[in-house]
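Lecture notes, unit on protein representations.

Consider one protein chain, 60 amino acids long.
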Amino acid sequence: LDGDVAEHLGSVSYVYAGAGDDELIIEREASRQRASGDHLTVAIKADKALLFDTKGARIR
């Protein structure tokens, strides 16, 4: 994935990345800062992922 925007907020950072027609928002520890446009390799733990539909409702 290529990070479109990186937002650093104290102890956490959020990386916004496009994945095809979908958008991913990735929360990371701030010690692992990324810049906008950086390439990311992402592994998602299924038991830790929060998924939302197009209306913003959480998918359980």
